Amino acid sequence: MRSVRVLAILLAPILFLVAAPSCGDSSPGVPDSPDGVVKAVSEGLAANQPEVLWKALPASYQQDVNELVRLFASTMDAELYDRGVSVAGKAIRVLRGKKDFLLNHVMVRMIAAPDKDEALRELAAATELLETVVASELSSLSTLRTLDVGAFLRGTGRTLMRQFETVSAFLEGDAFSAALKDKIRGVRAEVVSMQGDRSVLRIRTPGQEPAVVPLVMEVPFVRVEGRWLPDEFVRDWKTIVGDARQQIEALTARTAGAEKAKYLATLAELESVLDRLAAAADQKEFNLLVSELLGRFLGGEATGPEQRRPAPPAPDPLR
């Protein structure tokens, strides 16, 4: 349950960036050289600018990604999707309004920071991350149908990266920074050979510890529509897109017909419990509802003194 920090003050500039992506764009550019691309992408990601990945893609690849997003938006059941977003919104209401009750629950105390102030910061951080998603373009299928992925990455994407970084700082080992961003910052690339639209780069990735030998690879690159990409990525692109399309179609099939009714019933139950949690008058009532929630949806059982399920009878060995 370790998590993230501040976001309300970020929402206004994010909405501005999404609404007017052409104004004051501080996104990194992508050079027309293979080693320049590696440098630009690594520096952009290290600076929480995920849109650099989008700029590094050829136009036809960007079109493929946009089409996948729109396929999902046009085939996903709107009633089910909207109900899921509604549940997330009610969860935020509980996380905001009942944070003291939540942090006093026995199961939460086992995984939260022992210091109450730090635990409150962790909870606020996690809540803010969820709020970003619910307040973003992802919350509506109608918005997804016309989503500009580049603008999304430049706006909401930057915010989410910053928030994940904050979340990571609460986690043991700080995986996001230590395992990802620190490595990205230290990436170095040099051209080994260049012939027309093909090149080989020697890419050096730093080790995690001073004693770890840096990883050095020679990676073939190829230029596609004016963008330099790893050759293996280019050869696999159609398969990547095809697999993503199949996953979207499979998800659509799994949430249709009788299955849709089951999912809606589950979401309705969850909403009911969240509404009651938001209205809980005291710690005891809140704890009982959390136990009910765990029992219904996670197969868990109450661990506090307020409610314990009786143990099932032991099997009769003579039967």
List the topology elements.
Elements: H1 8-19, H2 34-46, H3 51-55, H4 59-75, H5 78-97, H6 99-104, H7 106-111, H8 116-134, H9 141-144, H10 149-170, H11 175-185, E1 188-195, E2 198-205, E3 215-224, E4 227-230, H12 231-254, H13 257-279, H14 283-297
Antiparallel strand pairs: 1-2, 2-3, 3-4
Structure characterization notes:
This protein has 319 residues and is of the alpha+beta class. Helices cover 62% and strands 9% of the residues. The protein has one domain. The chain is built from 14 helices and four strands. The protein has a four-stranded antiparallel sheet. The protein is globular, with a radius of gyration of 24 Å. The relative contact order is 0.14.
How would you briefly describe this protein structure?
Helix content is 62%, strand content 9%. By secondary structure, it is α+β, with helices and mostly antiparallel strands. It has one domain (8-297).
